[in-house]
Specification:
The longest helix is centred in the last third of the chain and has 17 residues, at 116-132. The chain is built from six helices and five strands. With 153 residues, the protein is of the alpha+beta class. It has a domain at 92-153. It is globular. The protein has helices at 24-27, 31-39, 56-63, 68-71, 75-82, 116-132, and strands spanning 94-97, 100-102, 105-108, 142-146, 149-152. It has a three-stranded antiparallel beta sheet with strand order 1-5-4. It has a two-stranded antiparallel sheet with strand order 2-3.
């Protein structure tokens, strides 16, 4: 028997006044999703231990059979692995977003949805600056991701 786990990650969203108080998912015409739900078993489960951040990275580890309390080390190592980047025992990967700051307030967590190419250029400039600064012998490297989502290793 084959199983499919469909994870509509993030689709719940928040009610929008422009949609009459409904969420985008409630307002959407999704006949295929409705058919899958009608033909399958729909249930609720909590796959995020209370001691970990409630995010798709933790929940998906659990759904795939990994105990997040043992295996979760953050989103950045997962994203590095997805990009084929091997991390050594002493490597440290962090996720960094390019953002828009105005008047000391973050106004946009996507830097205005900049393109991946623009993000690469900004990260190359930051990499050049880091190369000039003393890092105590450690090497820091920006790895361009998709648009505003990137890794620092």
């Amino acid at each position: 028997m084959k199983y499919a786990i469909i994870i509509p990650d993030g689709c719940a969203d928040e009610p929008q006044s422009s949609l009459g108080g409904r969420t985008p998912l409630q307002a959407a015409n999704v006949p295929q999703m409705d058919a899958v739900a009608a033909a399958g078993v729909v249930g609720r489960a909590n796959h995020v231990p209370a001691s970990l951040p409630p995010g798709s990275d933790v929940a998906n580890l659990s759904l795939l059979g990994y105990n997040p309390l043992e295996h979760f080390t953050g989103r950045a190592p997962l994203e590095a692995a997805a990009q084929g980047i091997s991390l050594g025992e002493n490597d440290w990967a962090i996720r960094c977003n390019l953002v828009t700051i105005q008047d000391q307030t973050m106004r946009d967590f996507t830097a205005g949805h900049i393109s991946t190419e623009e993000a690469r250029e900004l990260l190359a400039a930051a990499q050049g600056q880091l190369a000039q600064e003393k890092t105590g012998g450690d090497r820091l490297e920006f790895i361009a991701g998709v648009s505003y989502r990137n890794l620092l290793i």
